[in-house]
Amino acid sequence: MARMTRGTRRAGSALDPVPASGVSADDGGLEAAPSAPSADGPEPDLPPLQRIQSLPSWLIGRVAARGRGLVAEALAEQGVKMMHHAVLAAVAELGPIAQADLGRRLAIDPKDLVGILNDLQADGLTVREPDPRDRRKNAVTVTPAGRDLVERCAAAAETANAQLLAPLAPAEARRLMALLARLHEA
Fold first, then answer.
1. Contact by Cβ (8 Å): 98, 134
2. N or C: which end of the chain has fewer CB within 10 A?
3. What's the structural domain count of the chain?
4. 94-119 pLDDT tens trace
5. In Å, what is the CA distance from 105 to each residue of 10, 20, 57, 93?
């Protein structure tokens, strides 16, 4: 499977969030910035860009993008793309599963799923065979090599997530996870 590559990110971009330290580097100089966003929302007297960057939606989005990048990088080291890993993990958990059911469960367009399954099967990670319950459908099953890759990818993703949360104390990380779960369930 082709390895994913990440583009380089320009340091000090105007769209980077303001650090919690309250100072932001801007072409070598320092400018004052809010120390932390308020739970009530951004301060109304902030400049427009700083106001946007102090919104919870902005910060959550930037952290999510960093997390996805770390996980994508870790999975690429295993030779797999994120969607391929998601499909492979679903097949390992749910399989044998009808190809159409798999697409519905993961909300993947059928044409995209066929391409992903073609890649996984070519790499010897899954097998598609006629579904014994309905021979008009294909059932997808994970191979032993696929199960091994799912385990390696799970470990790599856990390491990447630990890297994401590394700036936090363990109690802070647990609290953040609890708060994110509440927001997700709302």
1. yes
2. C
3. 1
4. 989 999 999 999 999 999 999 999 99
5. 37, 39, 27, 12
User: Looking at residue 167, what DSSP letter applies?
Assistant: T
Q: Is 125 exposed, middle or buried (0-12, 13-18, 19+ CB in 10 A)?
A: buried
* 13 belongs to a structural domain: no
Residue 23 lies in a domain: no
148 inside domain: yes
The tens digit of pLDDT for each residue in 1-15 reads 443 333 333 333 344
**pLDDT-based confidence at residue 37 (cuts at 50, 70, 90):** low
Residue 160 lies in a domain: yes
Q: Which residues are CB-contacts of 45 (< 8 A; sequence separation ≥ 6)?
A: none
**Domain of residue 113, CATH code:** 1.10.10.10
